[in-house]
Write a structure and sequence with these properties.
The complex is a heterodimer.
Chain A lengths: L6 H9 L5 H14 L6 E4 L1 H17 L9 E5 L26 H8 L3 E6 L33 H8 L5 E6 L5 H7 L2 E4 L19 E6 L2 H11 L28 E5 L9 H16 L3 E5 L7 H16 L18 H12 L2 H14 L4 H25 L2 E5 L15 H6 L5 H6 L3 E8 L5 E8 L4 H14 L5
Parallel strand pairs in A: 2-3, 2-4, 7-8, 7-9
Antiparallel strand pairs in A: 1-3, 4-6, 5-6, 5-10, 9-11, 10-11
Chain B lengths: L4 H10 L6 H18 L34 H4 L21
Classes of the chains: A alpha/beta, B mainly alpha.
Amino acid sequence: MLPYKNHQEKLNLIKSGKLSLLENVKYFLDRAEEKKDINGFNFVFKEDALKSALDIQKKIIQGNAGRLAGMVIAIKDVLALKDKQLTCSSGILKNFISLYTGTAVQKIIDEDAIIIGKTNCDQFAMGSSNENSFFGNCLNPCDLTRVPGGSSGGSAAVVAAGLCDAALGTDTGGSIRQPAAFCGIYGLKPTYGRVSRYGLTAYASSFDCIGPMTGNVDDAELILSVISGFDPKDSTSMNIEPALSGKDYEQTSKYKIGVPKEYFAEGLDTEIKLRIEEYISFLKNSGFEFVNINLPYTQYSIATYYILTTAEASSNLSRFDGARYGFRSDYEGSLADMYTHSRSEGFGEEVKRRIMLGTYVLSAGYYDAYYRKAQQVRRLFKNDFENAFKQVDLLITPTAPTSAYKLGEKSNDPLQMYLGDIYTTSANLAGIPGISIPAGVNKQNLPIGIQFMANHFQENKLINISRFIENNFKNGK
Amino acid sequence: MSVTIKDVEHIAKLARLDIKENELENYTKHLNSILDYMEKLNELDTRGVEPLFNPIENTNFFREDIPVRSIPREEALKNAPARTDEHFKVPKVISQD
């Protein structure tokens, strides 16, 4: 067990000489080796981490270290780190070496975090169970026969297993929040535009978000504050305050919370439903006002999401052709043959399926029926949330309809797998932030996640409510 | 709208993917089940609704046109599957005759 609860405590222990950062990093590295069967890491940067530990320990003692000094962070293997492999857990990029470091990653390095390794995920972040990885399945540390969720399954697993202090994940339709729920940690998907996407391998550019996955609220807030902000290299990034709670924490109990009935309809696991009701009564007793909210388009979120994201993916992934980087097939033939064979041999099944689907909905004759239609519905989603947030500060919902399921349970039926994203995709359609917080375990000892959503750029409300629950709710387990 | 094996072959060609003979049926089945589900959207009346391309809807973003150094050639060629000293190498595009 770690002798600290959050990063501030860790820093204090290092400053007072009670904790050696080098020993701390060695502990994580040993533990990562010990827990190799989880398969959470694609790569561990042992030498770099040990060297950073020595350098940063000195800086901390000297008093000139950054805000994340000594925080040991794992990053999802879709994020670029110069001179390291960037595989997106795919065969087509298995040997690709990054030429630069992405903005969010550079920001945590600049604040003296230690990057311990790159984590497993679904190939190109396409999947909800981490079963689509070229490097094999990642297992849920709470139950090794179950999936950790996806696509940031590795990031969730290594945090939950205590192999690092925190991780960066990415969320296109729930890929931070759902694995956080399955593994029992915090996962924060920021507002679209809050964090620069520069150096994040694009899956669906108008949906993708980078965010923190942590064991406590404080660290999630701290990491978000570091990675946020405008970046000239991403014209969709924005600099809007406030990202943080800070002094408005006292306002928390005045929040009005909406309960969208569509998120509690058929298909939701009974234990999860009861657990959320428990939290709602606790919050009611603490003085929070609750309002019933209608989000009538919820039932259309999966269809809308998968039309738009596969369309964007088919376009984004056209760059992988074996010409300039990545895997090239041995097949001898024309240039066109080289493209086709490199792509066919290099991409995994789910990636190909989504490229096919995306190509279809964008193809002549179907563009209006699918793609344009879905973009119109996307507007309706955004309007729906805008109306809801005129009445309430937050929405409370489940993160996923079930707890972590068995490996292989859904992998042969893509549609069933997609339907598991029902509660998370809407936030990405509207671009609003959401957080999944751990809410104890079910009878099988599997973690339950509760999601809060807020209006654009109101992550402070998500942090505040999460902190309020973390501080005051004691019956979670 | 139902997708046939022939449609799947056509889409695969557009996407520069080679779907094996024995996989065609499976792809057709999965695509149809997903597309059937997507038909749900036709229940919604979206006449007059402006499509939403980006959730933040910030308009054109301009910056000063200042030239900056990009990735040097040697770096850019580092990940090339085949290369010459200065170029990416690919199969011949123009035939000799």
